[in-house]
C-alpha cells in the first residue's frame, strides 16, 4: 500500500486558513505531455487566523516544481522551502503586508488517467478541479474557503488548440512564433479554485443568446467535437429554460456576459459547474431524436439546469469546507428536481426521484458507508459525492419548503443569497437564513444534517365511532449507523389526507382547531405522538406521507383491499402510485415465500382486479399511467427484504409480469397499437407518454413467447427513427427468447459504431441481460475492441451495469460475478481511483445476502485490500465495508 494508514479528516478540526489569496494570475503553456504552469499569487495573512506560524503551506500533488520566486525578485532555494509528496512549505513569509509568490511547475496531462486536474480527452485538454483537483495543476491553498480573483492566460499550438477557454471574460488574445497563440481570461468574481476550469482543443461551437430579466444579453456557447455539433440543440434550449426558470422561481439572474458549456467524452461524473465554463460529460449534452431516448432528453435538461443553478447555489454562495457539500448539492438537486417537474410532469418526476432515493439512497443509509448529509469525517472526499449528500440532501431542503410553505421558503432563500453572496458558508448558515426570514426555531430540524440512517415511521390508528374521532399515533425510530448508535427524534413533516369509503375526501380537522383542509402537515417531534382528528362520521382510510413528505420508511399494516382502494381513490398522485407499489410488493413477497417453501405460485386475483382498474381508467398523463403499470424493481424489492434472495425475487416478479401479460394480452395489444405511431422528434408530454406506455405494453407482451409479438418487436426495432423505440424493442428482443437476437445486436452495432453514447447503451443492454448466458457475454464484451477501461462511461456501461443492474447474474451463487468485479476494481484502481471506488458499490452491501454469498463477497473485498498500490478512494470504501466504524 502506498500509504499504510490514510488520514481521516474531521469536521470538528476545521480552522480558518492562515493565509488568503487576493488574486492569482495563471499562465499555461499547453502541451499534451509537458504543460508548464506559472502561477503568480498575491497572498495576505488571514486576520482571522489564530495560528502563530510564519510558514505558508501550499498543497500540490504529482507536480514537477521548477521555480519559486518571492515578490518578483527573490529567487527561493531549498533553504527557503520544503517539498513533500503533497505540500510545498515556504518558511518565513511576510506577515505584516501582502506578498507575491510566483511558482513555476510542469504537469503531464497525457499520463493523467484519473481525470482529475488537467487531462486529455480525445485530444482535447480539459480540467476537473472539484473537489481537490486544482492541487494537481499547481501549488495552491486548495480549499473552498479561499476565494480568489483569477486571471488566466492560455498559450498553445494554433492547429491543435484553436479554441482556448477559461472562466469569465475574454480580455485579450494574440499570436506568437512557432504557430502558437494565446488568450487571456479574467473572472471578475472571487471563487474557490475548485471552480477553476480551462479547456483547449479543436472544438465546434453552437451559439445563441438569452436576455435576462434586467435586459442584459448573455451570449450562450456550447462547445463539442465538430462531429457532435448537430446534437447540441436540446442542451441549448435546456439552458435557456433553466435561466428563465431561475429568474421566475428564485429571482436569480445570471451575472457574467458569457455562459459556456463544453462536452467531453472522458468524465468521472455527470457535469461540473465551473464559473462561466461548465464542463459536461457528453452523455448530458448530446442528443438527437435518433440517438437519445426520452429519458436522456429529460436528464440532459435536468443536469444542464443543475449546473446552471449552481451559479447561485454553489458559486456565488459556496461551501466553507467539504463537509458542507450538501449545502450546494442538496439545494441544487432540489432546485433541478422542481425545474424538471415544472417542465415535464410533477407527479412523474416526484415518483422517479423517490424511486431512486428508496432503492439506492436507503441502501446506502443502511450500509457500512452510511453518513449524515453533512458527514463528520472522511478519508477521501470524492467518496462523499453520494446519494445521501445529493438526494437525501434535496429531501431535507424539500422538507423545509413543506414546513415553511413556498412563500416562506422563498423569503428564506432570498435572505440566504442576500446575506452570503460572495461568501463560503455552512449548512447552518442556510438553516439560519430560513429561521430568521420566517421567525421560527429550526433547532430540532437541524438534526437531519447530523444524523445518518433512514428513520422508521410507525403509524397506529384508532377510530372512535361515538366521538367521531380518529387518533393517529405516530412513532419514530432510527436504526444505528456506523459511528452513531443512539439517535434523537427528528422533526418529521407528515402530510396526511383522509378518504371516505365512497372515495371522496374527508376533511382534516385536528381537535381544538376550527380550520379544516383536504390534507394537513403533522409535525412529528417526539419519539411518539398522537394526533386526533374530529368530525368524522365514518372511519376514513388514511393516506399517509402524501407526496413522500419526508425521507422515511412507513410501517402501517394494510390489507390488500385497502391498498387497492387507495390505488383507485387517493387524490394524491404520489400515494396513489405508492398504493399500487405496496400492493404489488406484498403479492411478490408472498410468492417469494412460496418459492422458498416449495409451494407453487398463484397470482392473487386482487392484483388482477387492481391492474384491470388501472388499465381501464382514462389517464390524461400517459407517463403517470406507465408508472402505475410498472412493478417495483428487483432492487427495490430486495431493499425491503431482511435477506436478499436474488433468484426468488426475480422468479416471483417475472411470474407476476407474465401472468398479467397473459391475462391482459388483448388490452395490452390494443394499447400498444393505438399508441404506436411515428412521432420521432416530438418531445411534448403526449408523444413521450405514448412512447412510454407503448413500450411498457410491448415489454409485458414480449414475455408471452408469441410469434406475432416477436414480429412487432422486430418491426419496431427496424423501423424506429427514435432511440426510445429502437432500444425499447431491442431490450425486449434480447431479454426474451427471440430468433433475431444476434442479428439485431449486430445490426445495432453496425448502425451506431461511431456514436459513443449509443454504443454505451449497447454495452449496458447486454450487461443487464436476464438471459442465462449473460456472464459469458460480459466476459466477451470486455475483450471487444470498443471496450476501454480508461473511459468512465464505458466502464459504467459494462462493469457498472453488470454489477449494479444485473443482480440475477452478478450474484451468481458460485461467486464468478464477484471475482470478476474484484479483478476489474484492482485494474481500475491504478487507472482511475474515483471510478474504481464507485464500482465497489456492488460489494459494500454484502451483509444483506445469505451466508455463502457474504463469504464470497468479503473475500473479494479482502483481496482488493491487499492491492499494494491501493488508492485512498478504494481503501476507504473497502476497509469500511469490511469493518464498519463503531464508536
Ligand atoms: N459539482 C458537480 C455536480 O454538479 C459534481 C462533480 C462533477 C464532481 N465532477 C466531479 C465531484 C468530480 C467530484 C469529482 O454535482
Ligand atoms: Zn451539483
From TrEMBL:
SUPFAM superfamilies in the cross-refs: Leukotriene A4 hydrolase N-terminal domain, Metalloproteases ('zincins'), catalytic domain
Entries under InterPro entries matching the protein: Aminopeptidase_N-like_N, Aminopeptidase_N-like_N_sf, PepN_Ig-like_sf, Peptidase_M1, Peptidase_M1_dom, Peptidase_M1_pepN, Peptidase_M1_pepN_C, Peptidase_M1_pepN_C_sf
One MF annotation (Gene Ontology) recorded for this entry: zinc ion binding
EC category name: hydrolase
Catalyzed reactions: Release of an N-terminal amino acid, Xaa-|-Yaa- from a peptide, amide or arylamide. Xaa is preferably Ala, but may be most amino acids including Pro (slow action). When a terminal hydrophobic residue is followed by a prolyl residue, the two may be released as an intact Xaa-Pro dipeptide
Domain Peptidase M1 membrane alanine aminopeptidase: 235-448
Assigned keywords, A-Z: Aminopeptidase, Hydrolase, Metal-binding, Metalloprotease, Protease, Zinc
EC number of this enzyme: 3.4.11.2
Origin: domain of life: Bacteria
Keyword Amino-acid biosynthesis: no
Cofactor: Zn(2+)
Cytoplasm is among the record's keywords: no
Annotated ranges, domain Aminopeptidase N-like N-terminal: 55-195
Domain named Peptidase M1 alanyl aminopeptidase C-terminal: residues: 561-883
Domain Peptidase M1 alanyl aminopeptidase Ig-like fold: 453-554
Protein role: Aminopeptidase N is involved in the degradation of intracellular peptides generated by protein breakdown during normal growth as well as in response to nutrient starvation.
UniProt family annotation: Belongs to the peptidase M1 family.
Name the record gives this protein: Aminopeptidase N
Native source species: Crenothrix polyspora
Gene for this chain: pepN
Amino acid at each position: 500500500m502506498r500509504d499504510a494508514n490514510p488520514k481521516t479528516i474531521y469536521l470538528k478540526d476545521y480552522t480558518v486558513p492562515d493565509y488568503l489569496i487576493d488574486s492569482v494570475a495563471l499562465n499555461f503553456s499547453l502541451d499534451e505531455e509537458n504543460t508548464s504552469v506559472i502561477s503568480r499569487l498575491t497572498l495576505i495573512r488571514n486576520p482571522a487566523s489564530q495560528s502563530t506560524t510564519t510558514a505558508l503551506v501550499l498543497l500540490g500533488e504529482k507536480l514537477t516544481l521548477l521555480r519559486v520566486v518571492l515578490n518578483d525578485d527573490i529567487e527561493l532555494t531549498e533553504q527557503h522551502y520544503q517539498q513533500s509528496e503533497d505540500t510545498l512549505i515556504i518558511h518565513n513569509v511576510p506577515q505584516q503586508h501582502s506578498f507575491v509568490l510566483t511558482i513555476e511547475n510542469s504537469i503531464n496531462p497525457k499520463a493523467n488517467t484519473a481525470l482529475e486536474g488537467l487531462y486529455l480527452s480525445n485530444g482535447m485538454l480539459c480540467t476537473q478541479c472539484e473537489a481537490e483537483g486544482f492541487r494537481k495543476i499547481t501549488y495552491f491553498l486548495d480549499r473552498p474557503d479561499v476565494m480568489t480573483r483569477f486571471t488566466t492566460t492560455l498559450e498553445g499550438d494554433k492547429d491543435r488548440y484553436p479554441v482556448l477557454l477559461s472562466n469569465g471574460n475574454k480580455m485579450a488574445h494574440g499570436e506568437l512564433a512557432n504557430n502558437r497563440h494565446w488568450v487571456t481570461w479574467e473572472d471578475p468574481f472571487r471563487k474557490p479554485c475548485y471552480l477553476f476550469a480551462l479547456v483547449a482543443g479543436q472544438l465546434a461551437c453552437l451559439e445563441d443568446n438569452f436576455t435576462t430579466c434586467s435586459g442584459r444579453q448573455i451570449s450562450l456557447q456550447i462547445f463539442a467535437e465538430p462531429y457532435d455539433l448537430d446534437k447540441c440543440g436540446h442542451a441549448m434550449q435546456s439552458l435557456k429554460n433553466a435561466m428563465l426558470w431561475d429568474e421566475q422561481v428564485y429571482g436569480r439572474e445570471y451575472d457574467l456576459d458569457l455562459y459556456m458549456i463544453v462536452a467531453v467524452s472522458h468524465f468521472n461524473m455527470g457535469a461540473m459547474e465551473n464559473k462561466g465554463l461548465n464542463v459536461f460529460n457528453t452523455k448530458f449534452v448530446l442528443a438527437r431524436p435518433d440517438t437519445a431516448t426520452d429519458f436522456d432528453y429529460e436528464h440532459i435538461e435536468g443536469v444542464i439546469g443543475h449546473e446552471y443553478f449552481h451559479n447561485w447555489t454553489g458559486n456565488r454562495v459556496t461551501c466553507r469546507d467539504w463537509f458542507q457539500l450538501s449545502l450546494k448539492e442538496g439545494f441544487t438537486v432540489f432546485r433541478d428536481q422542481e425545474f424538471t417537474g415544472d417542465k415535464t410532469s410533477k407527479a412523474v418526476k416526484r415518483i422517479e426521484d423517490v424511486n431512486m432515493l428508496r432503492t439506492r439512497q436507503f441502501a446506502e443509509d443502511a450500509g457500512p458507508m452510511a453518513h449524515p448529509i453533512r458527514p463528520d469525517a472522511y478519508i477521501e472526499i470524492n467518496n462523499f459525492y453520494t446519494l445521501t449528500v445529493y438526494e437525501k440532501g434535496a429531501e431535507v431542503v424539500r422538507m423545509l419548503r413543506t414546513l415553511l410553505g413556498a412563500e416562506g421558503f422563498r423569503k428564506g432563500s432570498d435572505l440566504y443569497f442576500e446575506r452570503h453572496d460572495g461568501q463560503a458558508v455552512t449548512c447552518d448558515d442556510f438553516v439560519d437564513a430560513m429561521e430568521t426570514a420566517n421567525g421560527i426555531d429550526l433547532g430540532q430540524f437541524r438534526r437531519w444534517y447530523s444524523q445518518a440512517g433512514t428513520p422508521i415511521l410507525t403509524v397506529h390508528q384508532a377510530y372512535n365511532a361515538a366521538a367521531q374521532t380518529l387518533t393517529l399515533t405516530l412513532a419514530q425510530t432510527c436504526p444505528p449507523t456506523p459511528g452513531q448508535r443512539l439517535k434523537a427524534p427528528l422533526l418529521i413533516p407528515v402530510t396526511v389526507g383522509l378518504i371516505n369509503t365512497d372515495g371522496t375526501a374527508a376533511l382534516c380537522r385536528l381537535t381544538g382547531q376550527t380550520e379544516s383542509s383536504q390534507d394537513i402537515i403533522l409535525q412529528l417531534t417526539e419519539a411518539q405522538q398522537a394526533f386526533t382528528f374530529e368530525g368524522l362520521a365514518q372511519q376514513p382510510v388514511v393516506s399517509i406521507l402524501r407526496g413522500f413528505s419526508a425521507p422515511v420508511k412507513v410501517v402501517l399494516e394494510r390489507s390488500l383491499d385497502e391498498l387497492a382502494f387507495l390505488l383507485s381513490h387517493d387524490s394524491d398522485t404520489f400515494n396513489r402510485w405508492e398504493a399500487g407499489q405496496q400492493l404489488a410488493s406484498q403479492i411478490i413477497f408472498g410468492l417469494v415465500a412460496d418459492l422458498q417453501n416449495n409451494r407453487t405460485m398463484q397470482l392473487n386475483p386482487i392484483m388482477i382486479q387492481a391492474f384491470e382498474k388501472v388499465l381501464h381508467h382514462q389517464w390524461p398523463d400517459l407517463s403517470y399511467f406507465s408508472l402505475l403499470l410498472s412493478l417495483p424493481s428487483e432492487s427495490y424489492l430486495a431493499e425491503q427484504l431482511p435477506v436478499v434472495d436474488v433468484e426468488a425475487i426475480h422468479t416471483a416478479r417475472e411470474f407476476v409480469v407474465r401472468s398479467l401479460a397473459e391475462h391482459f394480452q388483448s388490452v395490452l395489444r390494443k394499447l400498444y397499437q393505438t399508441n404506436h405511431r411515428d412521432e420521432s422528434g416530438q418531445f411534448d408530454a403526449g408523444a413521450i407518454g405514448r412512447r412510454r406506455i407503448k413500450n411498457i405494453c410491448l415489454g409485458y407482451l414480449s414475455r408471452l413467447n408469441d410469434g406475432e409479438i416477436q414480429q412487432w418487436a422486430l418491426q419496431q426495432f427496424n423501423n424506429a427513427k427514435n432511440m426510445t423505440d429502437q432500444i425499447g424493442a431491442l431490450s425486449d428482443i434480447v431479454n426474451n427468447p427471440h430468433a433475431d437476437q444476434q442479428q439485431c445486436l449486430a445490426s445495432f452495432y453496425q448502425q451506431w459504431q461511431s456514436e459513443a453514447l449509443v454504443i454505451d447503451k449497447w454495452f449496458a443492454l447486454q450487461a443487464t441481460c436476464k438471459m442465462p448466458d449473460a456472464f459469458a457475454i460480459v466476459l466477451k464484451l470486455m475483450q471487444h475492441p470498443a471496450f476501454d477501461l480508461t473511459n468512465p462511461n464505458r466502464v459504467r456501461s459494462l462493469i457498472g451495469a453488470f454489477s449494479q443492474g444485473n443482480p440475477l447474474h452478478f450474484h451468481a451463487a458460485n461467486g464468478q460475478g464477484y471475482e470478476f468485479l474484484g479483478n476489474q476494481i484492482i485494474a481500475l484502481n491504478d487507472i482511475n481511483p474515483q471510478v474504481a471506488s464507485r464500482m465497489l458499490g456492488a460489494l459494500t452491501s454484502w451483509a444483506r445476502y445469505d451466508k455463502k454469498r457474504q463469504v464470497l463477497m468479503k473475500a473479494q473485498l479482502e483481496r482488493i485490500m491487499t492491492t499494494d498500490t491501493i488508492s485512498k478512494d478504494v481503501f476507504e470504501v473497502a476497509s469500511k465495508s469490511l469493518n464498519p466504524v463503531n464508536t
